[in-house]
Amino acid sequence: MTATIAEFFEGDLAPLVRRMADRPRGEGGDTDDDRRETRAMVWEGLVGLGALDGDDATGLAELLGSVLYQGPLLDTLTARALFPDAGLGQAPVALAAGEPTEADGTVSARCDFVGFADEVEHFAVVGGERSALVRAGHPSITTRRHEETGRGELHRVDFAGTPVTAWAGRPDWEGARVRQAAYLVGLAQAALDHAVDYATTRRQFGRAIGANQALSFRLAEMSMRVDAARLLVHDPGTPAHAAATLGEVADLARTVTTATMQIHGAAGMRSDDDAQLYYRRAAAESVRLPQPRG
Amino acid sequence: MTGFREEVCALLCEDAVRSEIAQTRRLPYGQESGLLDVHRRLGKLGWLAINWPERYGGSGATIVEKAIVTEEMIRHGVPENVHSLGVDIVGNAINLMGTDEQKERYLPGLARGETTANVLFSEPDVGSDLGSLAARAEPDGDGYRLTGRKIYNMKAQHSDFALCAARTSTGPVNYAGITLFLVPLHSLGTVIEPVWNLSEERFDLITLDGIRIGREDVLGEVDDGWQVLNRVLPFERTGLDHSAKAERTLAALREHAPPGCGDRLARLETRVRAARLLAWRCIANLHEGRPDEIHSATAKWYTSETAKEVSVAAVELLGPRALLDARDPDAIADGLFDAAFREAPGLTLAQGSSEIMLYFVATSKLGLPS
After folding, report:
1. Do A263 and A193 contact (CB within 8 A), yes or no?
2. pLDDT averaged over chain B?
3. Of A91, B48, B163, B256, which one's alpha carbon is 20 to 30 angstroms from that of B122?
């Protein structure tokens, strides 16, 4: 399944996918509507190829990170595991984390950084002893898109006495964290590939900048760290260390994308260069799931 | 000296100033501030370019007072690029190397906060390796015709003129044959196109299509721009701007950090303190008339890397809240962390990249083979 989906992302679709949830800021380009159409098409494609079936979810997450996929798929996988009997079909679901309160079969909560809140069919409201599944579009739900570094589709969502359609316990955070870590491994690898490309072609002082050991060794070191991280996220023992693994990989993703920016110089800051996209996405995705401290 | 710093702080803490600064952070996307009332206030007092002679709008003070003004402006969140480009880089170069006519013509407006300038060095294929630049100034009567493309400069839309590097002759040594010109920015033959980027401030691609400049527009000597740059660079590379930015971000981080971050904050705080000491060592060098290139490279590298580290650490420690920009109603610290994170990559690139600083220290301080 993952190999088929990898083929789906190849070719002309890849650059569209990388930017399908990236809003330009006062600089023209595609509109929100164009991007939403692309997202809808990608969702249909992923679901049609079996992305919701749940086998090799870690491999799928890594692939999604490598193409900078932005959409509700990883949240949906977590929600489907949480509500296996809710008849979710192929509907997209967003995780809405907060401090929910319950009353008479309804849930109330303020949830920040909820992905794709205006495009999903359900929310899984999590953070309390019980998790609540609610239908999107109920008048008790208000959403507002955040203005944030990632320039993506993160929303503040307020639930004010929203009817609950199904209850469950706490989500499987371990599984979600491993998938998120895998996503970040894919992202880090893609950013590293972008940096290596540039270091190979950009010439200064009469030679490719990658010929300088200061730079090539840094790239090599990051390549080895990404290699190690990939083994970690696919290791069967990792769910028992999911939070620590995600912390480590999140740090790696920020490190690699920050170095990718440095290697690109000012060219990497340009909106039309993917270096800054990796840098912003790594920031947003590295802190997307709740991370325990201590 | 403490008294002067307090006076500067008092002005920068006035409600009108704070309100003006806050407004600049919430401009619609695609817009950015130029010179503000606060610049003009400081200019009127003779503080904006306080170390310049009074006849050019300064107060005849020293680089120490200038450093205090710069440090406090950044600590208080005054957008600094428009000021640092106009006064600290271009104006300072004119003050150090310009003719009396050039000083009369350009410095008073800069010092009053009424005009500003930008820097046209980088080209689409030329970044750190300035010696290979392609822009050319061809002799034309008693002046030159300037042709070339300049990119990754900022504030062109607010600038009246620019300091532009162009080749006037070729020879076996790349760095020879470069001349610095003071060129008008808004004239026929100059096309300015925005290049949108990660930060709040756009880059510009500026095409100079044979614009006419006079002999009197040369800063320093013809073919000797490299000497001008070497004279000016120690002033640009004190690291004071970066250390002040790191301090500001860290102060906000300390205020908003969740419990359990104490060790990390203490280490960052130590780095920031060291960064400031390195910056002020450079200021002291300049004050004593003994600029030190190794101290400058050390300060530039350490302070910019530290400022970047603090900005990235804020995202790690604060989580998604750090990503909200100033335009989001739920933003913390007025969106400072988002702005700092997006500005961070540029800190270790502009004014000499970290790699250039490392190479210089490796070869000049440690004596390693080049």
Report:
1. no
2. 95
3. B48
Q: Answer yes or no: do B327 and A254 touch at CB < 8 A.
A: no
pLDDT, position B98: 97
Question: Using CB atoms, which residue from B30, B258, B315 is nearest to A287?
Answer: B315
- What is the identity of the amino acid at B198? L
In the prediction, which pLDDT does A294 show?
Answer: 42
> What DSSP assignment string belongs to B118-137?
EEE--BTTBSS-GGG---EE
Position of tokens 């920020």? A254
Phi, psi of A88, deg, nearest 5: -75, -15
The CATH number of the domain covering residues in A173-286: 1.20.140.10
| B contacts of A180 (beta carbons < 8 Å) | none
Of A147, A266, A272, the CB nearest to B349: A266
DSSP B28: P
- Give how many domains chain B has, as a whole number: 3
**Cβ(A199)–Cβ(A209) under 8 Å?**
yes
d(CA B305, CA A227): 26
Average pLDDT (A165-175) is: 96
* Sequence spans of domains, chain A: 2-66, 88-168, 173-286
Whether B370 is covered by a domain: the verdict is no
Which ipTM value was assigned to this complex? 0.95
User: How many Å lie between the alpha carbon of B40 and the closest alpha carbon of chain A?
Assistant: 28
Q: Which residue is it, tokens 């730079």?
A: A215
Looking at the structure, give the CATH architecture of the domain made up of residues A88-168: Beta Barrel (2.40)
